[in-house]
Amino acid sequence: MSGPPGLPGDACDVAVIGGGAAGLSLAHRLGASAHLTVTLVDAPEGPLRPAERTWCYWDRGTGDFDEAVSATWSRLRVHGTDGRAVTVEPAPLAYRMVRSRDFERLVHSRLARSPRVRVVRATADDVRSTAGGAEVRCTTPEGRTLLVRARSVFDSRPRRVLPPARTLLTQHFCGWFVSTDTERFDPSVADLMDFRVPQPRHGLAFGYVLPLAPDRALVEYTEFSRTPLTTEAYETALTHYSRDVLGLGPLTVESAEQGCIPMADARFSRRAGPSVFRIGTAGGATRPATGYTFAAVQRQSRAIAEALDAGRATAPAPHGRRALAMDAVLLRALDTGRVDGPAFFTDLFRRVPPERLLRFLDGGTSVREEWGIGLRTPLLPMLRTAVEIPFLPRRPTDPRPEGRRR
């Protein structure tokens, strides 16, 4: 691949670092451009490649990655701590599940057919700005140094340390892909939050069930709290949830996944240099109050591709200011214990039209709709928290491991 004018050797217009959801999504969008040359730097097999993970999101109609969607649910269910369930149909939205291996296989097959995209299997060690853009210093699996030069670089690698935040919780979880001896699941309904589990002293906990067949499902235990659990504690919680709450009976654990997603009201700067930008979780794509990331990554990838096609290199914000402000209030209210987490989320699903609520969680509602939803939350605790938020300092945070979902 020859480089564009003004850049030496095999330089390209855009270099994308990382082969996860953010990096692959952006490379996929840019691969459709008629004039951009793209290099994707994807880590080779080894410790830097994450284990297989699951991404979930809601969408309407068909999408670009339907071939990678392994399951879809038209109904969602939430169980309160009192055992009562609320089941909603958020049509035209549906809840979708994508396994990372299927997503990677699909996108790489499309990239291989694009004459303007090159995939480099190497470890990105360093990124530095240059006169004509930026340079990515990589190490190949054979130990050879490789330089990738580009006009713009979009880096999806996780941050080593999160930016300062007023509130930092983590969404930490462990999930089992299980099969049962008899049909125990309804494949048409996904259990988004099941609060019929023991609640921690700080934060909240819930079960999460994505049925894949009448006798197969992803069963997960999740907490929003400050500190992750040990593997043994997750297994104990999952055993209790599967046996005592769901009553699954004999089951086989086919595979497991475990992770931790930061939930912080930090300011995620997206520019790391004159021509270097952060994307994905590193660029603030993870929604602070929910942990959902995949849908925001798609929005950001589309916006970046459109800007580059118009001759502008930028990484637009994946979430609006109003959404981030509301998330900051909710995180603080949960962290202080001013609101009861299980009751808060259960009441939202009981009192807000489901399609509107999902658009709200995705940052797609109007100011008027958000006022209506706000009136259905605990007003005094939320107002007290909103008043104090501007006066709270942002403090340095500890390094946090990244998770996989949403």
What can you tell me about this protein's structure?
By secondary structure, this protein is of the alpha/beta class. The protein has a domain at 12-52 and 98-160 and 268-309: FAD/NAD(P)-binding domain (3-Layer(bba) Sandwich). The protein is 27% helix and 32% strand. The chain is built from nine helices and 18 strands. Helix 1 packs parallel to helix 2 (100-112), helix 1 packs parallel to helix 4 and helix 5 (321-336) packs across helix 9 (379-388).
Helices and strands, in order, run as EHEEEEEEHEEEEEEEEHEEEHHHHHH
CATH superfamily of the domain at 12-52 and 98-160 and 268-309, called what?
FAD/NAD(P)-binding domain
The gross shape turns out to be: globular
In round numbers, the mean pLDDT is 93
- Unreliable parts: 1-9, 399-404
| Spatial separation of the terminal alpha carbons | 35 Å
> What top-tier CATH class of the domain at 12-52 and 98-160 and 268-309 fits best?
Alpha Beta
Helix content: 25-40%
